[in-house]
Amino acid sequence: MSTLQQPAAGATTPATVTEATTTQRDPRDRSPRASRKNRKPVDGRKVKRSGLLTAVMVVFVVYSFAPLFYLLVNSTKTQASLLSTFGLWFGGDFTLWQNIVDTVTYNDGIFMQWLGNTLLYVVVGAGGATLLATVAGYGMAKFQFPGRRAVFAVVLGAIAVPGTALAVPTFLLFSQFGLTNTPWAIILPSLISPFGMYLIWTYAIDAIPTELIEAARMDGAGEFRIFFTIALKLLTPGVVTVLLFAVVATWNNYFLPLIMLSDPKWYPLTVGLNQWNAQATGSGAQPIYNLVVTGSLLTIIPIVVAFLFLQRFWQSGLAAGSVKA
């Protein structure tokens, strides 16, 4: 008679193997059979959502976009409906296109002249400030010379001084040279950017390896060639970041042109629109609030487009050098 053999102690049957495999499966298994609902992060912590932080961000977004929405809505209204309807919603006739035409043609098209002045100040002033800051910051980062620490202290001190505190001394200085009420009164002060220089300085220290510069020198490359063919390409994120800051500062500059310029033909948009707004007060007032609002909307469009176009360089420029390997 045949005898059934029992498995030896400790032996593993196929059923046992299957059961062990099933029970020992990683609960974080990412196979389709694993439940998405029960998954947890690898470190075991649960992801928590803060209702308070969400509410704060919602308030911040509303606070940021409310002025833009106000400009967009009220640019579609006539002078009468602007003063008689709710400011944060449309009302009356939709006259956006007519307001734009009236804005650019009012007073013999002075708005377009102000726009041209602003572009001139931005291109020459902000562009020159970016170039000077890039050259100076690169030189401070990669060259050793006597007085380097003193220059560093002066740059930090210049960053701490607000521009409005220097406006009156700058006016007195420029008046001695007969430069007031000229474009140079706006362009020359805009060429100096201590913060831009400091930003390029700190960025160039890690962005440009010293060994690369030394290798280029051994190959016979001059300093200007090294800067324009090697260093400038590596500094592109930092340069675009400085350019963005300089463009925004020059485009929104108000106090310096206000005290430097007295001829409306040299006004930038900020001072010109304020002059239009002042027409609503005093004897013989001629309020043109609809043109002021429409002009403000047209004024912010170029700077918004520039910011959206350059923000990817701006983000990478700010993050560079923050983490070391």
Task: Please describe the structure with a list of short key phrases separated by commas or semicolons.
325 residues; 14 helices; disordered C terminus; MetI-like fold; disordered N terminus; mainly alpha; globular
Provide structural commentary.
This protein has 325 residues and is an all-alpha fold. The protein has a domain at 108-270 and 297-319: MetI-like (MetI-like fold, Orthogonal Bundle). It has 14 helices and no strands. Helix 2 (51-74) crosses helix 14 (289-319) and helix 4 (96-142) crosses helix 8 (194-207). It is globular and about 75 Å long. Mean pLDDT is 82; it is low at 1-38 and 321-325. Belongs to the binding-protein-dependent transport system permease family. It is found in: Cell membrane. Pfam families: BPD_transp_1. Residues 8-23 have a biased composition (Low complexity). Its main location: membrane.
Describe the oligomeric state of these chains in a short phrase: single chain
Helical fraction equals 55-70%
By DSSP, the count of extended strands is 0
Discrete helix count: 14
Care to give the gist of this entry?
The protein is an all-alpha fold.
Q: What are the SSEs and their pairings?
A:
Blueprint (H helix, E strand, L loop, with lengths): L13 H10 L27 H24 L4 H6 L11 H47 L5 H13 L2 H14 L7 H7 L3 H14 L2 H9 L4 H12 L1 H16 L3 H6 L8 H10 L10 H31 L6
Helix pairs in contact: 2-14, 4-7, 4-8, 4-11, 4-14, 5-8, 8-11, 11-14, 13-14
